[in-house]
Amino acid sequence: MHGKKGLLILVLLLAPLISGFCSVSLIKAVSTPAGVVGEDINEKLLRSINMTNIKETIRYFSTTYSSRFIGTEGYYKATEYIAKKFEEYGLNVTLMDYNVTVPVSYGANLTVISGPNKGLVIPLYPLMPNNVHPCMTPPGGIMGPLVYAGDGSLDNVKGKDIKGSIILMKFNSRDLWLTYASLGAKAVIFLEPDYTMPDHVATKRVNVPLNFPRLMVKKEDSPKLLELARKGARIRLVSDMRFEIVKAYNILGFLPGTDPDLSDQIVIISASYDTYSIVPDLAPGADYSVSLAVLLELAKYFTQNKPKHPVLFVAFSGLTVSESGPIEFTEELIFGDKWETLGKNIAFMIDLQLSSRGRDLAFVQAGFFYYFVDITSTFHRWFNEKVLSEINPKIQQVWTDIYGKVPLEVTPAGIIEYLGGGMYPDACWAHVPEPYFINSESWIGATGLGVTLKTADVITSDLWGTPLDTFDRMTESSFNNIRYQYEYVLALLSFVLNQDKYDLPCTLPEAKSNKWLRRDESPPGTSKMFVRESKGVSSILIGQVVKYNYQKAKYEPVPNAIVYVEHYPRYLEFGAYAPQLFNFRIQHEFIALTDENGTFTLKGLMIGPVDGYGRGKYRATAYVIEKNGSITYAPDLGFYGAGSYPLVFEVMRGQLGTYETPRRFVVAKFGSLALFN
């Protein structure tokens, strides 16, 4: 692709960096006299669990839909299913809709165009985009010989012409596909593996808009492609993936409490219901569905055994799409139309993120999207002292009576105790050994009133976010692990939801009246809500992509541009104890398409500077990508571009830009050039 100017695309591959972050503190089990149990925490309660229902729910969601990635048919069918279940249980159901930009696949395949198998069509599945560039081909596709590269070693292709070919290779080959892209290959097709590791997944895309299609073929079709490559067949590859603005939903189910005096202390119980995968059309999410299955069982149980406190059950979507769903929820309840009717009456949130791969649990209150190393609030101390210190011994006693042992350990939320010399004896990497998103993160960042209960001491990133998270990989041991975790969750919530009025360290109306929740400027550095500094995560960017018309001497809007907004510079994220540099799955980034006026809106940006890390600083780059995959517009770095409207901006207040005067980002007509090291 040629043009008057060149857009330099550099691929930078960073080695893993070890960095610690988040706040959990291990509180040892408290011994309790035999027979001392809570009024509702008993053997009958724990034996009431219906594991058949949970198993069937996981099976249903992971086998009925090949994917629940936002924008897929499976996602919308799952939305309808959950909403109907909530209604069936007797909850007051609301669908909270929001718009989000996601890659949408309209199908991909290869067709054999030479040899004895001429005309054979095999379905393919595009991978996640390279930055803002989706896995797309020109409408007529691309053609070339199919060359098998095995594990990616160049020894496997000696004597073969790589330029102009379409590479077939094993998925577990890390980033070696880039070698073939640099040698002139047109695309790569990965064979679906039996197993994988996080680094193989994370290195299948790069964070620059590189136009190089990457696709996967299912295991059942792999032998056909291997045979075609052996015969040197020529193929035509077609892939139609586009970024689109789609409608997404959070599903809210409200259950009134039996005590009218507690109507202003609603407890949120939440979990995710959509899925994510490096291959968006192949995202079954079996293990990832554990939390959803438990959430549905909890909704059913508490509608049949009504608690004193009102409950808001929330099935979130968009967690792995820049936390879009949880951010929308926080926006609506704290700053939007639902403040008066719902938001001001929320006591706190308990989010669930469970896995069948382990059974120990940890309460975490900081995630890796916002990487708030010091976001621990007064609520977390209160929750440990007033709730967990009461309930944990009771659950342990019942377990001992049933099983003769305590089957799992629980790590309550708390503050990291730094002993010096790089030692954090109770830090989360001892219990949650990988970066993660959590639904409660934006809520906690704004209010401080929430926790996520997460399965601890397990690695899930070799399964979650891949096509391999299937129901047939779950075993009897998997469901035993789920049972123990669900027993704890049910006992915990039976206790929490049946207490008298809580003397909370802070309430949301109090926070509003004291201007601890505000939009006109950064929240105060300290408040009653937080033990340390409040960080503010609820700013809004209203932007517009424009181009400068030299003939008319004015800026003109650019519709259908794709905008990538990232925290900047990235080394600050590492300085803030977040492993952004080595974990591609957790990046503090946003993607948006512009409307017909070139405008876009992003929610959930951080406000700064609140501390020395410059958390409110971002960089935005905008592009226009044609149907043939060509980048025709890119950031304008000239006088009328970045010279007048810099790419880097800082959010100093709760909102940057308005619909009347949006923050501008300028593009110009370009070609593109890919350079490989």
Would you give an account of this structure?
It contains 13 helices and 25 strands. The longest helix is centred in the middle third of the chain and has 26 residues, at 378-403. It folds into three domains: 6-14 and 532-675, Immunoglobulins (Immunoglobulin-like), CATH 2.60.40; 43-98 and 244-513, Aminopeptidase (3-Layer(aba) Sandwich), CATH 3.40.630; 103-242, Glucose Oxidase, domain 1. It has helices spanning 43-47, 51-64, 73-89, 177-182, 198-202, 222-230, 290-304, 324-335, 378-403, 441-447, 476-496, 508-513, 571-575; strands at 6-10, 92-112, 121-126, 142-150, 166-170, 187-191, 214-217, 234-255, 266-272, 311-316, 346-353, 361-364, 410-411, 450-455, 539-549, 554-557, 562-567, 589-593, 599-605, 617-625, 631-635, 648-650, 655-656, 663-669, 671-675. It has 677 residues and is α/β, with parallel strands linked by helices. The strands form three sheets. Strands 15, 16, 17, 18, 19, 20, 21, 22, 23 and 24 form a ten-stranded mixed sheet that branches. The two termini are 20 Å apart. It is globular, with a radius of gyration of 26 Å. α2 (51-64) packs across α7, α3 (73-89) runs parallel beside α7 and α9 (378-403) crosses α11.
